[in-house]
Amino acid sequence: MNKKVVVGLSGGVDSSVAAWILLEQGYDVIGLFMKNWNDTTGLLQSDCHWEDDLMFAEMVAKKLKIPFHQVDLSNEYRQRVIDYMFAEYKKGRTPNPDVLCNREIKFDSFALEARKLGADFIATGHYCRKEEKLSVNKTIFRLLAGKDNNKDQSYFLCQLNQEQLATALFPIGNLTKPKVREIAYKLSLATAQRKDSQGICFVGKVHLPTFLQQKLAAKKGNIVEIVEGVERVKTHFYPEMKEGLPGKNATEESLSELTEPFKYMPSSGHIIGTHNGAHFFTIGQRKGMNVGGHKEALFVIGIDVEKNIVYAGEGQTHPGLNRKGLFIRKDEVHWVRTDLRMKEDESRDYLARIRYRQPLQSARLYYREKGMYVIFEKPQRSVAPGQFAVWYDGNEVIGSGAIDR
Question: pTM value?
Fold first, then answer.
């Protein structure tokens, strides 16, 4: 009897081709569309409604001659992804809803619905790969980067666990995006020319302040510029960041100092404008301050949601944009490879990234009493609390965690 696979048909080309590949591999394939969002508040484009996605998903299922079902997971999505997103922004943090969507919805709520249809496996159109290896009479599931470096989505799956990976299939992980398009064209799939979705997972591309104002009130505050050239400010806030790494026996105290964010005060700079809410901004943001009179672009280098102040610095080389390391609380440290979990006081070298598409960076991880300290070989730009730091061994995701500071 053929194994049954439920593929998440999203109405896009990737999941469409994934379904076809599974058929070619001899699986018993079922298409399942999930409705997660139907609110258009803050949307920048009107062609991103779930009805359109449903129509295309149904057309693909009909073309491939596979059973098609749909499920409404909008309540779960709002509670487990969107509410979390609002709560994080309220604290002045920058969440990644796509990572949460995969952990909480696609490989949890959706997987439960798929099992009701008799699924042995759950498949998605992610550009990543899975491999199995035996370790002490136990199967270990490895999450690997996709073959297409331009589309690798392993970062977004960094919070999956071994149980979730056990039943996951990623049929297009060995393909490039152009090849996926080519297959879709040859099969005359309705999604062959459809543009990739953008913005928040299942929501679309939004004007973030408008979207967030559903729950977070606008509140006038000051934009304070921290001028790099002021020597007392420069020496007080920006210690010299040398390339290289602390020794593997570095103390928690020294690591804590190295990962402590710059502390700005209103008196450290001068007011150059106003904003409608510090919680609408993120570290490294360039647009949205609407302040003129500078030779170079202004960037957000600090946020104080309690005092409702946005701190800005001029130019891409402003030292306030760079950090040598970051800290992840112990309860936020997640291991995809549980067999490689670090012990307290252990240190280990990995490659890491702090955002999707960022080239992997050389880093040393220090697991200490309070949590994980990630120190980079070279200073990193725009380290934003709330985002996920992900560490790799080569092209394999080993673990991840939400950045605390």
Answer: 0.91
217-402 to CATH, choices 3.30.565.10, 3.80.30.20, 2.40.128.490, 2.40.30.10: 2.40.30.10
343 vs 161, 211, 368, 375, CA distance in Å?
A: 19, 41, 8, 17
| Catalytically active residues, by annotation | 101, 201
Cα-trace Rg, the chain = 23
Q: What are phi and psi of 274, to 5 degrees?
A: -130, 165
Amino acid at 64: L
283-291: long-range contacts (C-beta < 8 A, 24 or more apart)?
Answer: 283/94, 283/321, 283/382, 283/383, 283/384, 283/385, 284/321, 284/381, 284/382, 284/384, 288/209, 289/223, 291/223
Band (51; pLDDT cuts 50, 70, 90): confident
Read off the pLDDT band of 234 (50, 70, 90).
very low
SS3 14: helix
Q: What's the confidence (pLDDT) of residue 240?
A: 59
Contact 113, 96 (CB under 8 A): no
